[in-house]
Amino acid sequence: MEQYFYHGSIGYYSFYEEQGGTYCSRDNTSYIRGEGLGSVDINGAALAEDTGFDGYRFSYWLAIGGGIWLGFRALVLRRCYVTVKRYGQACHESGEMLNRKEAVVFVQENLRLVAHGATNYHRIVVLYLLIEGFMSDVFLLVASDGLSAKLQYASMGYNLSALVLLVFEIFEKMNCLSEKWRMFWKRLLFSYETAFLGEIVSAAVQQELLTMLNRTNLKESRPTALAVSYYLWSLVGHGIFVVNVIGFLIGVRILSAVVYVSWKHGSLWVFFAPCSIDTTLKLRNKMTLLGGYRWKNHKLLYTKSALKSFGLQKTTEPNGAEFLVLRKLHWFTAPANNFMVIGTIVRGGVVECAERPCSTESIIQFFNQDIWGAPSGIGSFHAVPIQVQLKVSPLH
User: Fold this and answer.
1) Where does the chain cross the membrane (predicted)?
2) Average pLDDT over residues 45-58
3) Please, which pLDDT band fits residue 378 given cuts at 50, 70 and 90?
């Protein structure tokens, strides 16, 4: 028997697979193997009414879009390599040790897909590319088996993690959440201690989730598909699968984050506690480092290790003022002098300030101590009534 399989996508193209094999009448099962893969510029109603073509087909949409995505990731890798190399040289020249965990976090931070200062329009474009990558993963699962299928599930989990993070950043940029709840959700869902665990576990169970989904009543929804179009209904099916995988991924992250914080700090108030470093960073860091905090006297401290992991350093100006410094992440380039002042160091903490470039005379240094989550002695300001008595001496 021969079978030809088309798989629609978000963009105006579809995937194509040619399969051949045998049909067993005893168990009503087809045993097939893939004999050809491809893509074609056809989708929607045209795909539903397509009767085939005697010859080769190709897709300009996928070729151009895939080329842009590969070029984009290649430039991101180059930018990351240059930045990490310079940071390593700076650590070596200053005699600062950089352990494996700190190096991994710094690399991951510099592998982020959006630059510092990106708008939500930029994020939506990158989000579309991530969705197309996810659709490619779903299709390739059909043609994969064994170890290659497991790798494909891992790739899908990685793409979904990036997608969820990007959606959260869009909401952050819209200022939909107060600072307290923004950091609560970011610490709970996006930390380096739990992110990779969630991806690994979700990759291990995605096949079971997909099998369970195939056994539901969705397989009997052909009348609905005919009414709303196969294309639209396929998007609904993919959406249900994505929601299930993301829900499982988030569940694993929440559980592991709660367990880790309870074990590491002995208090779940770490999720809610304010931190001036986090407030100053805002969208400049991709994820948080739960192990990088220190819980002392019911307050948060940012450890030296965490500051180093995120590439945070300090500079002292001639007048003695100290400032928090971070390398600005550009889209594709990595300028040598890209240090930006983002905060003022006051009383052991940090106060956010307007972003500005470091002066050429500035000396960049690593922190030699932990930083308090809030400057000592600085709190909220409010008016209080006071009474002043003046004693006037008589004139002689």
Assistant:
1) 58-76, 125-144, 150-168, 189-210, 230-255
2) 68
3) very low
Is the per-residue pLDDT at 268 higher than 70? yes
Residue 11 pLDDT class (50, 70, 90 cuts): low
**Which amino acid type is present at position 241?**
F
Q: To the nearest whole percent, how much of the chain has pLDDT over 90?
A: 28
DSSP 395: P
DSSP codes joined into one string, 136-200: HHHHHHHT--THHHHHHHHHHHHHHHHHHHHHHHHHHHTT-S-HHHHHHHHHHHSBHHHHHHHHH
Among 176-180, 181-185, 225-229, 392-396, which is the least confidently predicted range?
Answer: 392-396
Phi, psi angles (nearest 5°) of residue 366: -85, 155
How far is it between the farthest Cα atoms of the chain?
A: 124
SS3 131: helix
The owner of tokens 């005697």 is 54
Query: Shortest CA distance to 253 belongs to which of 306, 301, 186?
Result: 186
Report the alpha-carbon distance of residue 284 to residue 343 in Å, rounded.
13
SS3 393: coil
**Alpha helices by DSSP H, 174-300:** 179-189, 192-214, 222-228, 230-265, 276-281
